[in-house]
Automatic annotation (TrEMBL):
Ranges of residues in domain Carbohydrate kinase PfkB: 51-288
Lineage: Bacteria, Bacillati, Actinomycetota, Actinomycetes, Kitasatosporales
Record keyword Transferase present: yes
Keywords: Kinase, Transferase
PANTHER family: RIBOKINASE, SUGAR KINASE
Protein's UniProt name: 2-dehydro-3-deoxygluconokinase
Superkingdom field: Bacteria
GO terms of molecular function: 2-dehydro-3-deoxygluconokinase activity
Assigned EC number: 2.7.1.45
Cited InterPro entries: Carboh/pur_kinase_PfkB_CS, PfkB_dom, Ribokinase-like
One Pfam family it belongs to: PfkB
């Protein structure tokens, strides 16, 4: 990853607003109506927002770039970045700011409903803006939105290293594959994978990724680095699990913090599991990210009680 005087991580895409609805169970049985407690709340924060927040909370200089509408949802996103002190470059989006409804069950599981009308095939992040910000960045993390797909060649030409999160990719969808095969670090969920190792090795073989990580919730994560596949145990949550929303974004932020500060992939993945476990203790109606001191202390404890494979010991 290259040196930079200005930005550690440029986050592209993934800005938006979620409406959180707590439901008695998932899947939700049909009924004429439900009484919702603790209520229904709309707040800023989708995948790019959460990654940016996680990186910023860990002390990395972070800049977020995306399209936003001139609407109440866009105002919430702008206020989110302003209140947390995260620089934001917002490109006007005539169709409006991205929004979703998250149904959250008592066990913390989530079902997301995305408003597909808030965008069009012609949406673009201006190439000059992408190039200028990428050239001032050590690394770029790319959301799998359509404008970011068109930005991939510009990012590669700027010489910045890339990461992306494929979320619950099935290993086959060609839209996701373009991100998987362009990024240097690839995150994804193992939820839809029959054979995680085959998918991880396929990403590495067909693209340029040197590190591929599949998160598996309470089962931990699978790390493919330097051709070796390693299981990373799940970190113990510091308090009861209330919501899994944002756990994958927190994992990515923790992992990238590790790599950008010189830690090897295995240690970085432990940072990711610790950050992800913390995120599961944060209610969906709020936004919070693990602080650096807590991340380091909990990761140190996890590494002390876990056998680190010899091939992964030490720093890069």
């Amino acid at each position: 990853m290259t040196d930079s005087p200005d930005i550690d991580v440029l986050v592209l895409g993934g800005a938006g607003v979620d409406t959180i609805v707590h439901v008695p169970e998932l899947p939700l049985p049909f009924a004429d109506s439900y009484m919702i407690r603790p209520g229904i709340r709309t707040r800023a924060g989708q995948t790019g927002d959460f990654v940016a927040l996680g990186l910023h909370a860990l002390g990395l200089r972070t800049h977020h770039l995306d399209l936003l509408g001139d609407d109440p949802e866009g105002d919430l996103v702008r206020a989110f970045h302003r209140d947390h002190g995260i620089p934001l470059t917002a490109i006007p989006q005539p169709a409006g700011t991205k929004r979703a409804v998250n149904l959250v069950g008592p066990d913390g599981r989530r079902l997301s409903l995305y408003d597909a009308t808030r965008g069009s095939d012609t949406d673009r992040l201006p190439a000059d803006t992408v190039r200028t910000l990428a050239s001032a960045s050590r690394h770029a993390h790319v959301s799998i939105t359509q404008p970011c797909a068109h930005a991939l060649p510009v990012l590669r030409s700027a010489g910045v290293t890339l990461s992306t999160d494929l979320h619950d990719w099935d290993g086959e969808n060609l839209y996701h594959a373009q991100f998987a095969h362009t990024a240097d670090i690839v995150f994804l969920s193992a939820a839809a994978l029959d054979d995680p190792e085959r998918t991880l090795r396929g990403i590495a073989a067909e693209g340029r990724a040197r590190e591929v990580i599949a998160t598996a919730g309470a089962k931990g994560a699978h790390l493919l680095a330097d051709g070796r596949l390693t299981h990373i145990p799940a970190a113990a949550p510091p308090s009861p699990v209330v919501d899994s929303n944002g756990a994958g974004d927190a994992f990515a932020a923790g992992y990238l913090y590790g790599r950008l500060t010189g830690h090897p992939p295995y240690e970085s993945a432990v940072f990711g599991t610790v950050a992800g476990a913390h995120a599961c203790t944060v209610p969906a109606t709020t936004t919070d990210s693990i602080a650096l001191a807590a991340l380091l202390s909990r990761a140190e404890e996890a590494l002390r009680t876990t056998h680190v494979p010899p091939a992964h010991a030490g720093r890069d």
